From TrEMBL:
It is a multi-pass membrane protein. This is Transmembrane protein 256 homolog. It is found in: Membrane. The lineage of its organism: Eukaryota, Viridiplantae, Streptophyta, Embryophyta, Tracheophyta. One of its GO terms (cellular component) is membrane.
């Protein structure tokens, strides 16, 4: 049995519907659900710090080909762990 191939325009339609659904559901969730405990700000700050220090130092060390720039990576990993741990409380 031969499976018909989809042309590129059909994939664009699927992508558009997925984007509309994501935007609509995200907007609905933002305006309807209000968290009782604003721990998400602490969680978001720690994860952002983790991304910037861990990934940033890894990318910088790889781009410049010098391992001395990877010194912040352990602190970024610690920020990731602290961020996930902040959800426990």
């Amino acid at each position: 049995m031969r499976i018909p191939q989809m042309d590129a325009f059909q994939w664009h339609k699927i992508a558009a519907v997925s984007g509309i659904a994501a935007l609509g559901l995200g907007t609905y969730g933002f305006h309807i659900f209000k968290p009782e405990n604003p721990v998400y700000k602490e969680f978001g700050g720690l994860l952002t710090a983790g991304i910037l220090s861990f990934s940033g130092s890894c990318y910088t060390a790889a781009y410049l080909e010098d391992r001395k720039y990877s010194a912040l990576a352990p602190f970024g990993g610690l920020a990731f762990v602290a961020g996930w741990a902040s959800l426990l409380f």
